[in-house]
Amino acid sequence: MVMGFQENGHITMERRNAKTGESEEREVTESVEKNWEVYPLFGEHK
């Protein structure tokens, strides 16, 4: 299975049968806001 992830939460998945060559593709969007932390701008550290 091959999976592709984008920063905006878009996920693409492809599963391919090696014997028959048949492939199945799916796409989904998930919230990624919990995956990122807010960092201060460069030079604005405490």
Automatic annotation (TrEMBL):
Stretches the record annotates as Disordered: 1-31
Domain of life of the native organism: Bacteria
Compositionally biased tracts (Basic and acidic residues): 12-31
Protein name listed in UniProt: Uncharacterized protein
Lineage: Bacteria, Bacillati, Bacillota, Bacilli, Bacillales
